[in-house]
Amino acid sequence: MRGEERERERGGNKGRERKKEGRRRGEKERGGTKGRERKKWRERKKWRGKRETGGERRREKEKEEKKGREVERRREIEEKKGGGREEKREREQGEEKKGREVDRWREGE
């Protein structure tokens, strides 16, 4: 008991206190560490951040691919229903021509 009081006065047990607390500085359950280990941990944290940005890029890429796939799927569905946009236009124009021809034929009679 007396030894601990003396240590507290000198400020010599700071390391041990930190070790007991451990999680105060965002560390998980590693306890207190020496400076070198702390430095390594900081480096690892830095790399972890960079990895996350890579993940974001990957997610964006996947989104774009998904959009592309969806557009293709829509096109396929349109084709199955009766052609794409161009074919629909052609069909409508053909119907207009037929209508004109019928009108001419009726006028001729």
UniProtKB/TrEMBL annotation:
Biased composition (Basic residues): 36-49
Organism: Mugilogobius chulae (yellowstripe goby)
Superkingdom assignment: Eukaryota
Protein name: Uncharacterized protein
Start and end residues of each stretch annotated as Disordered: 1-109
UniProt biased composition (Basic and acidic residues): 1-35, 50-109
